[in-house]
Amino acid sequence: MGRLIVVSNRVSMPTPDGAQGGLAVALQAALRESGGLWFGWSGREVDKFTGSVSFEEISGVRSAVVDLEPQDVEEYYNGFANRTLWPLFHYRIDLAKYNRSFGSGYERVNKRFAEPLHVMIEPGDTVWINDYHLIPIASQLREHGIRNKIGFFLHTPWPPTRLLVSLPYHERLVRTMFDYDVLGFQTAEWLESFLHYCQNELGGTIDGEYVSFEGKTLRAVVCPIGIDFENFLQASKTDAAQALSERVKVSLRQLSMIVGVDRLDYSKGLEERLNSYEHYLQKHPESHRAVVLIQVAPPSRGEVEHYQHVRDHLNAMSGRINGAFAEVDWTPIRYVNRGYNRDELTALYRAARVGLVTPLRDGMNLVAKEYVAAQDPDDPGVLVLSRFAGAAAQMQEALLVNPYAPEEVADALHKALTMPLTERKQRHAALLEGVKNEDVHWWREKFVRIIEETDCRQGVAAQ
Ligand code: ADQ
To answer: Ligand 1 center to residue 213 CA distance, Å?
Structure first.
């Protein structure tokens, strides 16, 4: 049995306090079991790229990282990844920047990553590449003679063909994907968009899960990511979780709480969410002094202009709505610009009557699953979820909404806040089962098994 080699833009190693996301925890567990390695960018910048690798081992997890030049970071990371592919993959071609220097920087960095990486791969190792930053890396590895099985998992949506073709050199990018054995998508919708492109733009052929183009075949599957359910439950029992839970209880008194937890990103639909909440407050005067929205949104990707714009706009909106509706003893929105660690988040989720998760487009959205996991099964809150989040495909018992339609979201908020206990329990029990069974370990095991059992390089696709 070979090792597992995980590759992602950034490497996430175990921390002393164990405060980490579910994805990192799951991949670390897999690496520990397989004696494998996690490879990526160190997050550091150096004057000149050397390709020299720094190794580290923490709690049985080995990592290997390289430093990049400032120009690499600007063109590859802040450029092609976050200014071109992220908006395009979230259907925002109005925000996508198509600079040639971004594209060449992206290809250069993928090549640079492949140089030290290919030397570390041994025969029999399974290679797992994560996310849109690294799409062309399989081609680079193949050029170095790597014949191992390589899988790619896309955490974001895959956009419809009509949008993808707005990307110059789109075909050049997608062609490189045929050097993978397996591609994993979060939902059937993203997979269908990919297949549509292959069939209609490339002229490839599709046979069940297999896609062929110019003599190369890959297997494309749906494999939705989950949360680390057990670990999440444990986090809710820590002192920090209990302490925040007490503070929230005291500060809420009789108020019903609605919670939103997101990275500050335009794809999360935060402006539309505040707008919907304002509609709710207008339509339901009885909610004044009875309801509060706690929105946690730590800034991310501050180097990209549009993120600053969204941040300014949210500051203005929350101030305006509070100014218009607040009373001396009540503020309708508590807008918090910092992150909380996982144990504190469990307390926030559990205290909330409603989890308001309304991205305009999201590969999956783990907050929706975390909210469900954190509820008291005897008195659970209600999940209001955007139909445009990948999570909606698995979470049909949530109140599904169109996040662009403020009146619809306002009505769903009202329904959630007035829902009888029996219905809340029914919906929650059904959602909980999915979140618990299809957790992050289930996802990781399934995806790695699919890569291992698939052999497209030999021209024979094992079933
Ligand atoms: P993200 O866009 O970062 O991830 P999401 O899945 O919602 O989105 O969150 C990932 C994690 O970050 C969750 O564990 C959550 O608790 C944490 N988090 C989010 N906001 C936070 C906050 N304000 N404070 C503290 N923690 C916060 C990308 C894709 C998603 C996909 C994931 C995993 O965009 O669609 O679900 O990868 O594949």
So the answer is: 34
